[in-house]
Amino acid sequence: MTGPTIESRALRYFVAVAEELNFSRAADRLGISASPLSRAIRALEADMGVTLLERSTHGVSLTPAGAVLLEEGRSALDAAQAAVRRAQRAGASTPQIVLAVKADSDAGLLDAILARYAAQDPALPVTVRLCGWAEQPRLLRRGEADVALVHEPFDRTGLDAEPVAVEPTVAAVPATHPLAHEGRATLADLGLPMTGPSDLAGVRRHQDNLVDRHGIRDLAQLLALVELGRFVTLVPRSVADRYPRRGLAYLDVPDAPPAVLAIAWPQQSRSTAVAALVRAATEPEPAQHAL
Amino acid sequence: MTGPTIESRALRYFVAVAEELNFSRAADRLGISASPLSRAIRALEADMGVTLLERSTHGVSLTPAGAVLLEEGRSALDAAQAAVRRAQRAGASTPQIVLAVKADSDAGLLDAILARYAAQDPALPVTVRLCGWAEQPRLLRRGEADVALVHEPFDRTGLDAEPVAVEPTVAAVPATHPLAHEGRATLADLGLPMTGPSDLAGVRRHQDNLVDRHGIRDLAQLLALVELGRFVTLVPRSVADRYPRRGLAYLDVPDAPPAVLAIAWPQQSRSTAVAALVRAATEPEPAQHAL
DNA sequence: GTCAGTTACGTGTTTCGTAAGTATT
DNA sequence: AATACTTACGAAACACGTAACTGAC
User: Which residues form a coiled coil (chains A, B) (predicted)?
Assistant: First the structure.
């Protein structure tokens, strides 16, 4: 059992195999042939003195040790990648700060935040990176973004966050829905799981399932499917305001947990630019002094 | 500018140079000669398309990009090490859970916590790892420990924590101190920096400075120096109770922030054993039902 | 002249791919 | 027979150390 130093190559190889649970596919993904991959994993197991993979008759499976190495190794690789990307940005001739936002998930505040940040004294150029459903935390962890606007709840591991805005949640239903003309409904009316007042996790999980199942990539697709009567969904009011559609009705849902928009950044960030952008997003509106 | 993949060797080399700010010493520390080190760093800079080190007449210094890569690269290396160590422990024939504790910093609760944990159904053997002054977070981040008992404030980056116990802070002064027989004193009386009621950081920083300056490694040394009249120090009451010394007096300090002992663990830990140990440490005492 | 960092060059190790081997369906 | 993982072997790439080079004190 050698020391704890590991080459990132070995870790990348292992993660690929552990994710695919198949040497050939993993080798493909890595752009190498299966032979060096097999040897590398065996060497890694020998170095660590631990069996990582169970090669049984019915394919490859993870041992407990392998499961741990997959989980923790993945985040170590993310961290290394993040280190490189952030260093590259810090060393660029015109350093930029990257803000990740899911399209239409800014509660209409993006412009105001950017303007407020730009008004501060040493303000770096901000690149807005649009991303998919729950990609923001991943982009932060991989160093592809420095800050993100993201709706709660999200995986806070390694991240810090401050709330930016709270707004009511409304339900999107087909115009043909029995309650479409009521203007309001309860979660139970809509067949959505009941949750405690402060627990959005249930509703969110429900929506994530739908998103996964139908391979939805953006809001327009989601709303189109709602329009077709496939299901109903919950969205922040600001999203509803931005997407009026003839075939859709939006209902108030008094018992739905409110939508909380937060600004998140890597916990270990020491960047003053990030801090300034966070301040711009969270500071209360400056009081309007009378003339 | 190549992709963001980096070999951990390159990262280790860079961190060594960035910490030493000197190629020869860094090469020494790494156990290689200066030549491959110089080449490796230049290759890394070329790969990344960024200058990391400023080689000027008066030695080596970090560029902004280098500073970022040092900070983030260090934690990426820690994460990789942690992944390996935790996987090794998970794969061991008799998996153990490692609890890091600074000697005498358990508020006398260690035995009770261990007993309560051991009473749970699937309880793993617990290895108590004694460590130095503020080593616990580092041990957690490097995977050398799974859980830690640590006094606040500490660097929470990447860690989660729950409070375990709060106890009054007392001052240790030489028996010859003018206030030794008063039994109590204020921070101002003792010449310690004033801090807000909820801010221990000032006092803690003051103590850390002293610890660093005198190279103190354990409590006995610290108290011996206090006894010699070199300075005064603040300790939790439980520590005072455990170290009665003839040459020392302990004074109540009503305006000192209380000492908060917390149990901390890596944020991404999915280990049920860790969760059970945390529960054992934080759960309220079971109510004593009357007969 | 010495100290610190870099470049030049020859050597040894590591990693690769192709191809053959073994086992399961 | 086909698929999936492993072992065997020769070739290419990589990292190393010694030694020579450059510039600053």
Answer: none
